[in-house]
Specification:
Blueprint lengths: L1 E7 L2 E7 L9 H8 L9 E8 L2 E8 L9 H13 L7 E6 L2 E8 L2 E7 L2 E10 L2 E9 L3 E6 L24 E5 L5 E5 L3 E3 L3 H11 L5 E7 L2 E7 L3 E7 L1 E7 L2 H7 L3
């Protein structure tokens, strides 16, 4: 099976070209491909499928669950489509579970247009021994943005504990300091070096619901978020780093139970 490996500010993905949708992408196969020791290793899977005459980004978290949207994944997906000659740039569009995404490719940087973040009110989550309150934000997927003095001291080694009645679909939890530094625990993936929708959620909180442009520093680099009246743009680098083939049967057979 052919694959490509890519990342957007360190948020890394396995890209699977599957135009006919012939691949049986089971949760176990996703987990195996994303395993950093027994597979290829990634925060998630981007499967490229043709649907209704256009390309569709079928995104899966590394634990095998399906997610509505992935901002960095969408930027990587746009890079893949242009690099493979599947669409013409610099402007393009493709489908996601959160609707049609538009992208603009300008050299090393790719900007993706997403829905405007919606601030939903206060929420809380427990990270390690610390319970934090923050702003619940909808960016097509659920987020909780918590302001902290120092992001480096927050324990993101285990999934956050939260009230499931507040976040019935789970939640991505971002911690952000006043200087725009962000860390994130991604639902279904754990702590990642970057989260595109999380950066958009953080920008919405820092801008207090207003329009504007905010640079967000994540562990894997910097992204820039511009919030407009009707949508939100996420801009930053997206890199294809390798391609090859993987023997699925051998990989699954050798993976420990």
């Amino acid at each position: 099976m052919r694959f490509l490996k890519a990342h957007g500010t360190g948020n890394d993905f396995v890209v699977l070209p599957d135009p006919d949708g012939a691949l049986d992408l089971t949760p176990d196969l996703v987990r195996a491909l994303c395993d950093r020791r027994f597979g290829i290793g990634a925060d998630g899977i981007l499967r490229a499928v043709r649907q209704d005459g256009s390309w569709f980004m079928d995104y899966r978290n590394s634990d095998g669950t399906v997610a509505e949207m992935c901002g960095n994944g969408a930027r990587v997906f746009a890079r893949f489509l242009v690099a493979e000659g599947l669409v013409a740039g610099p402007k393009l569009s493709f489908g996601t579970r959160d609707g049609v995404s538009e992208a603009v490719v300008e050299g090393a940087e790719i900007a993706i247009a997403m829905r405007r973040p919606r601030l939903l009110g206060r929420g809380s989550a427990t990270l390690g021994s610390l319970t934090l309150t923050g702003e619940s934000v909808d960016v097509g997927n659920p987020h909780l943005v918590c302001r902290v003095p120092d992001v480096s001291v927050i324990d993101l080694s285990a999934p956050p504990v939260f009230d499931p009645s507040s976040f019935p679909e789970g939640v991505n939890v971002e911690v952000v300091s006043a200087d725009g530094r962000m860390r994130v625990y991604e639902r279904g993936s754990g702590e990642t070096l970057s989260c595109g929708t999380g950066a958009c959620a953080v920008a919405a909180v820092l801008l207090e619901g207003s329009n504007g442009t905010v640079p967000i520093d994540v562990a894997g680099g910097r992204v820039t978020v511009t919030i407009e009246s009707e949508r939100c743009w996420l801009a930053g680098p997206a890199v294809l780093v390798a391609e090859g083939t993987v023997s699925v049967d051998q990989m699954l057979a050798a993976r420990p139970l």
